[in-house]
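User: Hey, quick favor. My workstation is busy. Could you predict this chain's structure for me?
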Amino acid sequence: MTEPPPRNLRLLQALLDTPTIKPVVERVTPPESAPSTEAAKSKRGFISKLKLRHAIIGIGFVALVAIPTAVTTAYMAFVASDQYHSSVSFSVRSIDSMQATDLLGMFSQSSAGSTVSDSYVLLDFILSERMVQLVDEAFGLDRIYAPRGTDYYFGLKSGLPIEDRLTYWQSMVDISFDHSSGIMTLEIKAFEPETAQKVASFVVAQSEKLINELSVIARNETLKVAQTEVSNAEGRLYQTRAAVRSYRDQSQEADPVEGAKLAAQLVASLEQQLVELRTGLSTALTQMGENTPRVRVMRSQIASLEKQLERERQRFGSGSASKQGRSANQFGDVAGRIQQYENLQTQNEFAERAYTSALAALEKARVDAAAKQRYLAVFIKPTLSEFAQYPHRIMDTLLVLLGSLLIWGVLVMGYYNIRDRN
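Assistant: No problem, here it is.
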């Protein structure tokens, strides 16, 4: 017989053979008002999740983004007036940098380099209060830029101070300067195309007048130094010539050198006569006595010649003349007269050379000043617009939208950043 299995094994087998009984879940049909109750509960849950910060963010979006964009769109579409611009291009040039055979020489970098400073001066002049005053005197800013209709944003109010007028003028003027070529491009905006063209032509005319004035000032400054040198050299030459003339008046001779030559010839002639008389006296003494009339006459002639020869030698500056005698009569000494005259002549020649050099420098300065004169080369005349270029309605609206979105986003991000940190 087979032995029955152990008790534990029987219990395990019985547990495995017992079927699993699933609990019966009764479905209760809800009443007809159950769906509306669930929707109300979900709605109350969504509203309960909204907080004060969400309302503030929504109000901020409407106030900072929606309203400014809507107002800008309406203003640009129905209120903003059309604006026209007149464009003109010119350049400050100098005569020495122009090449008559090269049409593109006026756009070269070398020619623009010498007039860069004048170009910047002209740029500041166009955007200055002086130009605002000139345009106001010529056209009347309050009249040509008066608000059209209800467009007070782009129009100019009357009675504003010069500072506000300058700010408005700078907003209606666009000027650019190309440093490499020296070309300046100017755009003038106005509410009528003819007005913009007239104002642009007036600005160009005033700019040309300024450049001409700067050119004249530079020319005068260049010539001023050279003219001063000429005046000084001329005065020095006048003084030396006056000294030479005074010397000739007092010495009563045009050239002491020639006088010295004549004095030398006179001394030589007297010495020759003296030698002849002494020779004749020696011959006469061999034939006559000392007391004979002929011998006495010859001795008298010899004594007279010796005295005259001594005086002539003293005048010439040789012999035994005393220094006191020479200083007492400064024009009696031929050597002193020659020295004094040579000094005066040297000073006069130096003054003449300095005067000639100053005249040459003045002439060169005139040529250089004439060659470096500045002028305004206008190669694009003021244009006349046929349709309005301003304002940029779509672009301005998009800029307002993007700017307001940026501000709103920065404020929201800043709030949440501070909230997260706390």
